[in-house]
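Re: flavin mononucleotide structure - here you go.
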Amino acid sequence: MNNIAVIYQSHYGTTQKYAEWIAQALDADLLNRKKVSVSDLSQYDMIIYGGGLYAGGLLGIDLVSKSKFKHLVVFTVGLADPKLMDYAEIMAKAFQNQAYQPDQVYHFRGGIDYPKLSFLHRSLMTLLKKTVEKKSDSEISAEGKAILETYGQKVDFIDKEVLIPLLTYVKEILA
Ligand SMILES: Cc1cc2nc3c(=O)[nH]c(=O)nc-3n(C[C@H](O)[C@H](O)[C@H](O)COP(=O)(O)O)c2cc1C
């Protein structure tokens, strides 16, 4: 089997959980983005990078968005339902160099646990909720909808099954 690194950046563990499942299924190295630099990655045939979505940005993506790798697969983990989301703007911001894009991108749903949020994150969510509430129904984005539906609660949408397309793709490419 080829050398694969699964790298993640996660504040509250949902992205980390998906990364752990992927690494386990592919017998890959699991690395915390905060503990690696680009030079550590040259030994791998494939990099699978996963980051949590925070205020429309993909955590830690600069690690892999500026250097070229043999194979790069990216996954995002957010609160909004991926079936309702348009990720074009997020991915355009994450990969500003149009000439270099990941081979594949996947979007998974995480969760949120309000009592566990940091003061800063909880304040931000309160602010976001107030902004969303001022909008008319037709103006509310998928993220806004998810904030209103889950505000103040503990919700967990993580699901191992959603990884099947990513795992199938990687196995085919590196077969
Ligand atoms: C301050 C804050 C901002 C967030 N912004 C977004 C967002 O823009 N889009 C989204 O889908 N989810 C957003 N979320 C939800 C997180 O992406 C979600 O909780 C995810 O599962 C977190 O991943 P982690 O547990 O790996 O940190 C936000 C959460 C917080 C606390």
